[in-house]
Amino acid sequence: MVGVSLSDVVVRYPVYSSGRQRSILSATANRVSFGRVAQDVGRIPTVTALNGLSLELTEGMRLALIGRNGSGKTTFLKMCAGLVLPNEGTIRINGTRAAIINPSAGLDPDKTGLENIEYIGRLLGVSRSERKLLVEDVADFTELGDFLTLPIRTYSSGMTVRLMFALATSIERDILIVDEIIGAGDALFMEKAAKRVRSMFSRAKILILATHSGDVAAQLCTSALWLNSGKAMMAGTPEEVWDAYVHQRAPLGAVA
Amino acid sequence: MGTTAVAFRDLGGSLARLPLALWLAWDDIHGKYRRTVLGPLWITIGQAAVICGFAVVFSGLFGADPATYLLYLAAGFPIWAMIQQYFVDMPATFVNTRGLIESYELPWLLQIWRRALGYVILFMHHISILLVAMLILGVPPTLSMLLAVPALFIVTLAGVGFGLTVAVLGARFRDLQHALGVAASFLLLFSPVLWRTEQLQTNQWVYQFNPLYYFLRLLRDQLLQLPTPVEIWIGTAVGAVALFVLGFVTFWVSRRNLYHWM
Questions:
Q1: Which range of residues forms the domain containing residue A77?
Q2: Does any CB of chain A come closer than 8 Å to the CB of residue B8?
């Protein structure tokens, strides 16, 4: 049974502000001197990104994460993707996952488009016969044509985005984790991407989507969670949560 | 799902995907020589030139027989090149593969295997120099050379353990890679790669207390068809297992923070 379950999850991460804090020489000096030397190295501040979240997602749920910058949306996604582990509380994830968090990552600029498709296909464990279909699918979606035989460092940024996006959305997974995507690309591509994402979203068993748009949340999701400073402010239908978020959020000046 | 479950699942999943790691390692080496005519052959040519150069100069310097010295170098250099990679290249593993780790649901340790297998592939390339040298000098290969396979396994297991430790620490401490690079060039002088242990009249602690010597010797003895004391086999095997456990425990304990460090 595909599912994501969080109970009282707390995520903290260290913030390194100076280069010295990333130096093994300074760290050794600090330890050897019992903290007298390089005092900033001994005390590395942490940020609490998520603070006591509990949540249960079952098959068929599509969750929209709403909140201001720095409210913990991306940390939440990274935790669901298995990148970040909670400091306190527990998380259980059942099901295969695909995360579109940093879509610019993973491609090799010196490889041609076709070689990159082959490369990512192998990484994802796609069999030889299915890789052919993958190439057709990606070629069809990206409309890159002959460009696919050129190294992708020769691509424009929009073309790279198209390729990355097609690859990231080509493999079906149970749980789909998406961070405010679809920023680049021309208008025609945006339309096409939105269509593809919708069909992918409809096949995924669980969708977790961070968004800054009430419309996107309402169109794609069945429920929404409003995060503020790592805490759940409100959960409910996308419409009511968005409404509350827009009307009740603290004025800009008070938050900073 | 705690850190422990995640770490062990990562280990199991990465071992199950060793064929993928091997393919990636091949692909990395081909990628590096993509825009060259000779391709990976460049690596071997470079090594051959260095080995011949050293053989000429050092056999004169130490008054040794050039042929024996050539074989000694042709066996020792590839091993050193492999060991050095664990110091120079391995600490950057997690930092350099952050993008892949973020985008695809893959065991993180796969990236460690990928690099280690890449070092083994390069080593195989370099060993061809030794085989050619043996052919020219009329030294027949015997079946005992096959002992190099378990020896290579022990060296690689130890390397993976060490490499995993420094890959985790290298993500946290960004100057570790530079420190280890300096250490590696220093250790080359302290390890009998260019010189032979018999030639060192004093200060023998230099190699006797140098763990690299035993791993180096374990593999080189098999390639040169020399007898290896059983203590060296046992000692290096135990050391390799201990290093592997150390590496895995480091990964396990640090797994929670490792992503933040990258």
A1: 3-95+211-255
A2: no
